[in-house]
């Protein structure tokens, strides 16, 4: 193999799996270390710069960081990254004076944001400090998009939502709430220099089966029903309610129903519980509230008697032990459908230059988020279909960068390279700036409100979050994957000290070969192919150093045992390129 | 500052025939200097014992005094151990071996512990052919007392202090061959590819085996002017022959040209295959072995690998015709069979 090019900013970034896995590339180990140092404000700001909604995401993020956390490869559970984010949000002081300053004098450019969800708000938070004038349009009464309308308050209290949304609106965003844009054509006649569409995926899928029309009053599309609950248009539901679907919306629907009188609510899924789309922790919380999840049932018919819904008929789906048996009738009086959602653009005319694919999705450049009409950009669920908050934020940053480049007259495809830096961590002999010891505590459970209490009040937050002490202990479980082991070949005397001390057998000295060959010849073969090999140039004995980054504990022992400082522990800082970055 | 090694290990750590992983053969974290050759040797011992699937509780580690003699704390943490008096490890090992012949004995010593204060003990443990593997971690200096030249430092070699050593050196391997050792080898801490199979062969050898491992002292004796430095050893070493060690249990899967391979069957049935080139040394001949050592010394070369091997020798227990049962498990009844038995023995001589 060719020697690894560590000057490529993506190499060491890839080693920081949590940061690499986070769509917004939040500097996770850095903020976790700050929590361990009780610097909650600093930890919050590290988060804010990348993901804009630390308090919100610390509760309801999809956590793509946790399944890839290296800790989860050497023991059972990953670091509770998401819950640590909440620790810094819960314990911070007033950080408003640390938010970017908004120039009094504007730069003369006007941007419109259609839709007030996380993607649009991110665009505003990136462009306001550069002097843009930003107008935000939303048909709801307040900003937040689906976070406000569909995420139940027992998972995300309104106070937290308002606080973080207002940080951005208070930058001077001109808001136009309860305003539905019905024609893009007319809208484009206004004098905006660029338009960002972040209208989400607002159309919940319906399930057209016999009985659907007669049962209209008893059958609800999940996301619309959740919004009605959030806006207090709906305050109760039938005792016997069925929720159809196995995603996170289904979990929110059934738990909300349980709090509105649906004591006998049940979730119906077509496949098995293991293959459900919902996040494992949301399934866990659902089961914890004694809501049954019935597997392998495929809906056939809404059963209506005397104009009222009395049940639903299901066939035993493929994989069920009862496959082929008679369909089963499950009695119920209301049904919530949570089987997916689409983005929909009935308000964008076909003849204005924005083209759509055959699924009705806009044609968007996946890197720049620019549509086929050059001054119109898309992001969040509106761009590529329903995903999650953190992805919407990532889209927002990229779209803001594109808008800025576009309005500066530059090529939106020429993205600035991310800012990166390696900083030595050596304080003295065997002494590091970072806490190198690997703590062996197991993942801590998040304390919750007693079940009897929480299911009576839909506004009462179920999770209590870690307190400072537990937060500190959990923070110390992080193994600092951003502190890189950097190898200086010219200093190496090939004494093997690093090979001998490495607890996880990552380091090898052997004859070079192609990647497949090298991976197979390591002391423990490197079978996790998406984790890179770190390969040095030829050493005096004709061998190369090959480090499998897969299970490196970043404990620094290789550097401590190296007599010539050929290994150094260096902190890698990687920041995505944002609009206006110098 | 780290005094603790994390207990997490690679999730795919392989297991040996006993179901143990390498971790089961590890010891405490080393307190030797960073880069010390001794740590590499400790790890080679761990690797060899793991690969041979020795039961950790059937191994005894014996050592004397010195940096080298601290290392048994850093490997085989679940085995028996005795850290004895300076230079007296051979006596302790002799006593232990006589009391319990069923254990595998690994003696660890240094150049000071062996070639200076323990020289007499070293000579006699070889003469008696105690069944043990005697490892010398040889760095040519007294590292624990700030790096003075030791008795194995070559004449003219310069340590960090910069003054050439004025005295002649002792070649422990040559001496051991003369004294009648049945397995003599030399290796280098920086070459585990050679050292690990050597250790396995030595552990399988019945009787005394010596491995003199050149182990650079990074703190006091690693400048290029020292003949025990990483750089010098890499530039000046030459192996007698490459070889494979095939343990008893393992099926022989590879075949080589008969002309170039010499198989040596060990006492326990394992096999060493020596792959020889035309000018390689005949390691089964004592005289040729000593000649080879002298010739290489004249050319400033360090000869490594198996230097001499003989599977014909009898170990102490065979020489003394002791009973097969380890002496420490004999009961009072076995040892004092009573007056009737005594009378029967006496009768034989009437």
Can you offer a commentary on this structure?
Chain A is an alpha/beta fold. Helix content of chain A is 30%, strand content 17%. In chain A, the strands form 7 sheets. In chain A, strands 3-2-1-4-15 form a 5-stranded parallel sheet, covered by helices on one side. In chain A, helix 14 (248-259) links the parallel strand 7 (241-244) and strand 8. In chain A, helix 4 packs across helix 8 and helix 8 (81-91) crosses helix 19. Chain A is globular, with a radius of gyration of 26 Å. Chain B has one domain: 3-Layer(aba) Sandwich (Rossmann fold). In chain B, a hairpin with a 5-residue loop joins strand 5 (141-142) and strand 6. In chain B, helix 3 (89-99) packs parallel to helix 5 (119-128). The longest helix of chain B has 15 residues, at 37-51. Chains A and B meet through helix 20 and helix 22 of A and helix 1 and helix 8 of B.
Number of discrete domains of chain B = 1
How much of the sequence of chain B is in beta strands? 15-25%
What helical percentage do the residues of chain B reach?
25-40%
Unreliable residue stretches of chain A: none
CATH topology of one domain in chain A: FAD/NAD(P)-binding domain
* Overall spatial form of chain B: globular
Distance between the termini of chain B: 76 Å
Q: Label the overall shape of chain A.
A: globular
From the alpha carbons, calculate the radius of gyration of chain A and give it in angstroms.
26 Å
Return the structural class of chain B.
alpha/beta
Mean pLDDT of chain A: 94
Structural class by secondary-structure content of chain A: alpha/beta
What is the total tally of β strands of chain B?
13
- Total number of helices of chain B: 12
Q: From the coordinates shown, what is the CATH architecture of chain B? A: 3-Layer(aba) Sandwich
What's the arrangement of strands in the largest beta sheet of chain A?
3-2-1-4-15
Task: Please compute the radius of gyration of chain B using only Cα atoms.
Answer: 21 Å
Low-confidence stretches of chain B: 252-256
In DSSP terms (H or I, runs of 4 or more residues), the helix count of chain A works out at 22
